[in-house]
């Protein structure tokens, strides 16, 4: 057994990419695929549910907005909770919430019941995202963190693609309700996560659970084929004791500027993302497009967002966080203006794809910055709080 050189966190940050990292990315990516599916599927049922229940335009828009209320509170609550009980337990609880209540929407007899179930499902959907960002940020090697986070986040936009495919394949023949039953499938993920997902070493050490942290490190050593290191509690020392683990910490002199900048960027980013994504099928139907064709536009935008996320994530590790973020949003703004003035189908398709590529893709850059900004004690709380401010934008957007 060789002697440790430096802290356990330096060892984790400097590791070579391995099958262990692939396992973490795949598991979290699967979680976000279902999270993305459940959050986006409501956009495709809005025209039909509105007709079935005789809803006004405002009530139709609220079918999406009420889910975002749940997302908003879930993001903050589960982010805070996972800093208390652990990333792994918090993630499992979030998945249980959004699968049970999303699947139950199949049985909703009226508008009020549907809205209540969407709020409850939104709690879990909102909670999964910050925990996934936190876990991938804590386990991915520093030099490829941008690629790792964006690869994982690609699962979320892939979920949007699956929502569009489900809408195209299921809704015209079977109505809108069965697509919510499909949203209950990820409950099968829970046994996989319990068995294969490690708890955060940084979280365990921050709670003084050094023996458990060493056990997790041992598992990683075995999975990656590395020689065991003689780890001792002092290798897990955390110096960030000045933080009390509350939201107030996010506004201390060392963090307040980044908290405001990240929160504000999320807010305006999600106004665009969900204003566009949630209303796109309904607006296109009102403009005379067929229901299935309107779904196709949503799918193209989701595919572009998935490709954009990985592409921009690659640039992130080459050119840095700040330059990539600025360039992505500037090009995204131009794309959005072109989308707004598009009059023909092909131009609408191209501009919408470009908006998805740059605006949604660049958001993944923000996830990387967010995960890196906050120290271990308050990482999930910080990620959850800033993303909650963004969720206010997603609620307001429709």
Question: How would you describe the overall organization of this protein?
Answer:
By secondary structure, the chain is mainly α. It has one domain (8-396): Up-down Bundle (Growth Hormone, Chain: A). Helices cover 78% and strands 0% of the residues. It is built from 15 helices and no strands. The chain has helices at residues 8-13, 19-53, 57-85, 87-104, 111-139, 145-174, 178-182, 189-196, 201-206, 210-224, 256-286, 291-319, 321-341, 345-373, 379-396. Helix 3 (57-85) packs parallel to helix 5.
Task: Give a quick precis of the structure.
By secondary structure, this protein is mainly alpha-helical. 78% of the residues lie in helices and 0% in strands.
Supply database-style keywords.
single chain, mainly alpha, Growth Hormone, Chain: A, 15 helices, 0% strand
Secondary structure layout:
Layout: H1 8-13, H2 19-53, H3 57-85, H4 87-104, H5 111-139, H6 145-174, H7 178-182, H8 189-196, H9 201-206, H10 210-224, H11 256-286, H12 291-319, H13 321-341, H14 345-373, H15 379-396
Give a quick account of the main beta sheet: strands, pairing sense, barrel closure: none
Number of domains: 1
The helix/strand order is HHHHHHHHHHHHHHH
Strand content: under 5%
Low-pLDDT regions: none
* CATH second-level architecture: Up-down Bundle
| Overall SS class | mainly alpha
Mean pLDDT: 84
| Helical stretch tally | 15
CATH homologous superfamily heading: MFS general substrate transporter like domains
C-alpha termini separation: 58 Å
Helix amount: over 70%
The CATH topology name reads: Growth Hormone, Chain: A
C-alpha-based Rg, rounded: 21 Å
What is the overall shape?
globular
């Amino acid at each position: 057994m060789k002697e440790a050189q430096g802290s356990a966190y330096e060892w984790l940050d400097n590791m070579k990419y391995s099958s262990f990292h692939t396992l973490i990315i795949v598991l979290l990516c699967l979680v976000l695929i279902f999270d993305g599916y459940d959050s986006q599927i409501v956009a495709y049922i809005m025209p039909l549910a509105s007709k079935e229940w005789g809803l006004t335009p405002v009530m139709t828009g609220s079918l999406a907005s009420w889910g975002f209320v749940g997302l908003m509170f879930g993001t903050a609550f589960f982010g805070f909770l996972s800093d208390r009980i652990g990333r792994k337990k918090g993630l499992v609880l979030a998945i249980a919430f959004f699968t049970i209540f999303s699947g139950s929407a199949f049985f909703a007899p009226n508008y009020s019941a549907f809205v209540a179930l969407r709020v409850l499902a939104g709690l879990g959907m909102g909670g999964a995202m910050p925990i996934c960002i936190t876990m991938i940020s804590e386990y991915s090697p520093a030099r490829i963190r941008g690629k790792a986070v964006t690869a994982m986040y690609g699962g979320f936009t892939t979920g949007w693609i699956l929502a569009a495919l489900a809408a195209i394949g299921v809704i015209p023949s079977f109505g809108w309700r069965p697509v919510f039953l499909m949203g209950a499938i990820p409950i099968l993920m829970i046994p996989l996560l319990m068995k294969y997902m490690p708890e955060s070493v940084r979280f365990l050490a921050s709670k003084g659970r050094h023996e458990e942290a060493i056990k997790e490190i041992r598992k990683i050593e075995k999975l990656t084929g590395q020689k065991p290191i003689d780890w001792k509690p002092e290798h897990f020392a955390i110096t960030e004791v000045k933080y009390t683990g509350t939201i107030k910490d996010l506004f201390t002199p060392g963090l307040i500027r980044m908290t405001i900048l990240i929160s504000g960027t999320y807010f305006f980013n999600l106004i665009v993302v969900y204003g566009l994504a949630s209303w796109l099928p309904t607006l296109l139907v009102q403009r005379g497009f067929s229901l299935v064709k309107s779904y196709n536009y949503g799918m193209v935008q989701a595919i572009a967002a998935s490709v954009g996320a990985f592409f921009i994530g690659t640039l992130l590790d080459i050119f840095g966080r700040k330059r990539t973020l600025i360039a992505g949003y500037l090009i995204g703004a131009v794309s959005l203006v072109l989308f707004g003035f598009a009059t023909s189908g092909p131009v609408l398709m191209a501009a919408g794809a470009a908006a998805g590529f740059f605006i949604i893709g660049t958001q993944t850059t923000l996830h990387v910055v967010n995960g890196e900004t906050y120290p271990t004690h308050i990482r999930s709380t910080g990620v959850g709080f800033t993303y909650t401010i963004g969720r206010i934008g997603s609620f307001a957007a429709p």
